Amino acid sequence: EVQLVESGGGLVRPGDSLTLSCATSGFTFSEDYMSWARQAPGRGMEWLSGIYSDGRTEYLESVKGRFTISRDNAKNVLYLQMNSLKTEDTAIYYCRKGAVRGQGTQVTVSS
Predict the structure, then answer these.
(1) How much is the average pLDDT of 10-17?
(2) For residue 53, what are the contacts with CB-CB under 8 A and spacing of at least 6?
(3) End-to-end CA distance of the chain
(4) What DSSP state is assigned to residue 98?
(5) Are 3 and 26 within 8 A, CB to CB?
(6) Nearest CA among 74, 72, 94, 90 for reference residue 20
């Protein structure tokens, strides 16, 4: 069974940084495309970034340069480093493997 468990969210101020983690199990992590998405209050799910098994990455234009996705295949963990956070980054952040996602971790950016 595929399991994805996000952590690392919290309450931060504009301009702060935060690193999210996603611990995975139940599949061959190193072979799969993984992604991060978020859902802000009252809005739909928004894809943010993805990373291929060979390490290639891709980003939503609005987070490019601020967010960095990475993976540790030895630990089966996916990361999202978020810098220069803005109030509009407030959302629940999800780790995804295809249509499967975790329970999410709340990120709140507020002064």
Answers:
(1) 98
(2) 30, 31, 32, 33
(3) 40
(4) T
(5) yes
(6) 94
**Which residues make Cβ contacts (< 8 Å) with residue 104, sequence separation at least 6?**
6, 39, 92, 93, 94
Report the chain's mean pLDDT, rounded to a whole number.
97
At 30 the pLDDT is 96
Q: HEC string of 35-73?
A: EEEEECCCCCEEEEEEECCCCCEEECHHHECCEEEEEEC
| Under 8 Å between Cβ of 90 and 109 | yes
Mean pLDDT, range 33-60, rounded to an integer: 97
The helix/strand/coil state of 9 is coil
CB 47 within 8 A of CB 37: yes
pLDDT interval class at 74 (50, 70, 90): very high
What's the pLDDT at 101? 96
| CA–CA gap between residue 76 and residue 4 (Å, rounded) | 10
